[in-house]
Specification:
By secondary structure, the chain is α/β, with parallel strands linked by helices. The chain is 35% helix and 16% strand. It has 19 helices and 19 strands. A hairpin with a 2-residue loop joins strand 12 and strand 13. The protein starts with 6 loop residues before the first strand and ends with a strand. This is ATP-binding protein. Pfam families: AAA_21. InterPro entries: ATPase_AAA_core, Bact_Antivir_Def_Nuclease, P-loop_NTPase. GO terms for molecular function: ATP binding; ATP hydrolysis activity.
């Protein structure tokens, strides 16, 4: 589909400071912020973008300030390499000099507005001047003006002695690549049925369930919706049925047939949203506050469905911190300041933490999954998530379980009687289904486990799981051959401690003054090459116990759970 790569604007409603960017955009994008922070105004701009690029806002769309700024809209066409290739093909540019001239033009700050190799079209509505006048001025006055003139002359276009006129001609040609995707807008609390241009959503679903012979692939979309229903209500045999009257959606569970709304407003709304997203195809869907009536777990399941099972792009305005799943969504933080609404890309854990506090949440409020797995740090998370996927691919982080960090300092450098250790042990009261993974840090089989780790093991084991590594650290579960190969590839010149057995400290530099390898980088490289098999040390039984804990926490029927059989690690 034609996705929206990125955009920025100012001079519209609550946006009256500098240009605020939503860039880069992904498949699923969240705009999170407090009420009245301006989130909905972003959706309004996306909805009307194709018309607004050459039009001055009117009425209440004009910022209600004493000196409202000129409306400005910038739209990202794409990255320089892809735009260059597409433009040269469209304009039949084959001569080497012309190709190079245009490449130099795209590097101009007048086009690469954010300095990251992007290509932007910028419209500024200022009096009677053409919408792209100010961008042509900037390009004509830039260091690229000679490349612009040379390009225009070589193409025998309307060359002018005025560099700005030449720049305007280049921008007119470049704008031919700017296309706007189809956009649909779903307002907060609105009935999804009313968002389909008057056609009932039930009619659309009926068509998907019983398609014409030449549209048989539509049945797959209906099956995806049914699978989502089963996932949401945790019933593998449930079916979605549409009566011949097409007046309602029914859910069959065994011998019981009930209207969808009888399952509760939350279930009904999340299924309807998923259905609407499946009916629409290759569309930018702007959704306002989908969390209304939805339990935090339903919010996450909806987000996962939108990402995995549909082909739309999503811009979602929310004030729910429970939707901030950065693994599948790009997150932007909207705040209202004295300079109007400001948007910030929330791309780091600290950014997300700040956003949660702005929304009035504490970290403990966000532990909404049924099982919490505590690990020492981010590299442990990479390994545990991958091993769970190898054992039971049905388990989803953020839905079935959450991985939290306790930090090595807690158990390595504090005494067993320290208050922080006592508080950590009390976490079990918050969640019966709790697991903690602890590096033994033993240098040999004869080494003793420290007193702090022994206390945690003894006081937290039941009814949860305490997993103390059979080797020195979690890295010792990586087969020696694989770990050595990865370290040799990533750090060919770094001298590290010999990796000979399960007590080896294989990531430790030989010289104490040398830096350590990046554990996260190493972990990611390892899991990319680890295709299957967990039968190494006690990894398979420990991962099986962890998977069973997560499955039990989520009410999975043990007899119906399909796990991969025990086998030796296979890696590339």
């Amino acid at each position: 589909m034609q996705e929206l790569p990125g955009f920025g604007f100012t001079g519209f409603r609550s946006f009256f400071g500098g240009v605020q960017y939503m860039d880069p955009l992904a498949k699923v994008n969240l705009i999170a912020g407090q009420n009245n922070s301006g989130k909905s105004n972003v959706l309004r701009v996306i909805r009307d973008m194709s018309e607004m690029i050459g039009k001055q806002p009117e009425g209440l769309d004009i910022p209600q300030t004493s000196n409202p700024p000129t409306f400005e809209l910038a739209v990202r066409i794409g990255d320089a390499a892809s735009v260059h290739a597409e433009f040269c093909a469209a304009q039949n540019i084959t001569q080497g000099q012309q190709v190079e001239f245009f490449r130099q033009i795209l590097k101009s700050p007048a086009i690469d507005l954010r300095g990251d190799g992007g290509v932007w079209i910028r419209a500024k509505i200022d009096g009677n001047a053409p919408a792209h006048y100010w961008q042509s001025v900037a390009l004509g006055d830039s260091d690229a003006r000679q490349a612009v003139a040379a390009y225009i002359q070589s193409r025998m276009s309307s060359y002018s002695s005025d560099p700005r006129e030449n720049a305007a001609e280049v921008l007119r040609q470049l704008q031919s690549l700017l296309t706007f995707p189809r956009v649909r807008f779903v307002q907060a609390s609105r009935r999804i049925e009313d968002a389909l241009d008057g056609a009932a959503i039930i009619e659309k679903l009926a068509a998907l369930s019983r398609p014409e012979w030449h549209q048989d692939d539509d049945r797959k979309r209906f099956s995806a919706i049914t699978d989502f229903l089963r996932w949401v209500i945790d019933d593998d045999d449930a079916t979605l049925e549409i009566p011949h009257t097409r007046t309602q959606l029914n859910v069959r569970r065994g011998d019981l047939l009930l209207p969808l709304e009888h399952l509760g407003s939350g279930i009904s709304q999340v299924i309807m949203l998923a259905a609407y997203a499946s009916i629409e195809q290759k569309t930018v869907l702007c959704i306002e506050e989908p969390e209304v009536h939805l339990h935090p777990l339903l919010q996450r399941k909806l987000l996962r469905y939108l990402h995995d099972e549909t082909d739309n792009q999503y811009i979602i305005a929310t004030h729910s911190a429970n939707m901030l799943d950065s693994s599948i969504a790009t997150v932007f933080h909207a705040t209202y300041t004295q300079n109007g609404t400001e948007l910030a890309f929330a791309g780091t854990p600290q950014n997300l933490s700040d956003l949660c506090y702005d929304l009035g949440y504490r970290p403990s409020d966000l532990l909404q999954t049924n099982c919490a797995v505590w690990v020492e740090g981010p590299s442990d998370r990479v390994y545990i998530s991958h091993w769970l996927e190898l054992l039971n691919p049905e388990l989803r982080e953020g839905i079935d379980y959450t991985i939290m960090f306790y930090g090595g300092r807690l158990l390595n450098h504090l005494t067993s009687t320290d208050p922080e250790v006592s508080e950590f042990i009390k976490l079990r009261r918050l969640n019966r289904h709790l697991a903690i993974v602890i590096d033994s840090d033993k240098a040999s089989a004869q080494s003793a486990l420290n007193a702090t780790k022994r206390r945690v093991r003894d006081e937290m084991e039941e009814p949860g799981l305490v997993w103390i590594t059979q080797g020195r650290t979690i890295e010792n579960y990586v087969p020696q051959e694989l770990l050595s190969a990865v370290l040799g590839q990533l750090y060919p010149k770094k001298k590290l401690t010999a990796n000979t057995d399960r007590w080896s400290d294989g990531l430790r530099p030989v010289a104490s003054k040398d830096s350590w390898p990046d554990k996260i980088k190493v972990a990611r490289a390892v899991v990319r090459r680890w295709d299957s098999g967990l039968n190494h040390l006690d990894l398979h039984p420990k991962m099986t116990a962890l998977a069973q804990l997560i499955e039990a926490a989520n009410g999975h029927n043990g007899s119906a759970v399909v796990r991969k059989p025990k086998s030796v690690p296979v890696f590339r």
